[in-house]
Amino acid sequence: MVNHTVSNNPHIKNDVVLIVDDFQNMRSTLRQMLLSLEYHDITPVATGEEALIKLRNRHYDIVLCDYNLGDGIDGQQVLDQARTEGTVDLSTVFIMVTAENTNEMVMGALESTPDAYLSK
């Protein structure tokens, strides 16, 4: 019997993923979806401030960030600050995820130039 590990299985995705959402249920749902797609290095956080700390300490290949993060900074501010600090570079895929669908919010998020915009 062959023992496949994350590092040598060609079907396992080795990208490092950061999930930023203030709702635990959404973080869990996104994590389960990613696990089903064979992503295994997933870090969930609840606030924009936590996200910035994680981004300063590790490179993430993919960031799924909610726009509205409750109290504190929002997803657009996370993206702006991370780009200013250089912790999110051109190799990082930053996806803004939100239930908001107002034109102002969508255009505001697009001004920050996320790589993609995903509506919940």
UniProtKB/TrEMBL annotation:
- InterPro entries from the UniProt entry: CheY-like_superfamily, Sig_transdc_resp-reg_receiver, ST_Response_Regulator
Keywords, alphabetical: Phosphoprotein
Pfam families referenced in this protein's UniProt entry, alphabetically: Response_reg (PF00072)
Sites bearing 4-aspartylphosphate, chain numbering = 66
- Report the record's Gene Ontology biological process terms: phosphorelay signal transduction system
According to UniProt, the name of this protein is Response regulator
| Domain Response regulatory intervals | 16-120
